[in-house]
Amino acid sequence: MFRTEFDFTLPGGLPEPDGTLHRDGVMRRATAFDEIAPLRDPRVTANEAYLSIIVLSRVITRLGTVDPITPKVIENLFAGDLAYLQDFYESINRFDLGPIDVTCPKCDHEFSLPRPPGLGE
Fold it and tell me: How far apart are CA 118 and CA 112, in angstroms?
């Protein structure tokens, strides 16, 4: 089955004034619209680096008990947690299916080959 949501745990966490620390969350895979729509946002046109803030606020479906997940929530993350989420985003949206296991038809030797780009399962 094709997974669209992935659990994560922030290395630091989002602290609340009452001492609550939000670390566990869920991120879904991005759609094309998730990446295109923020390009019209004035914050992105003024500062291209803001794109990741808005995209992450769209694809993070849960972060502890914080509701809703807004760009302001993402702005308040520690830099290390932001970097972690950016890496996590890249990893779940990349379709690297890994090597292909093959068997030689002559000698029955089993080995793995790199998967050619664009080749599905």
Answer: 17
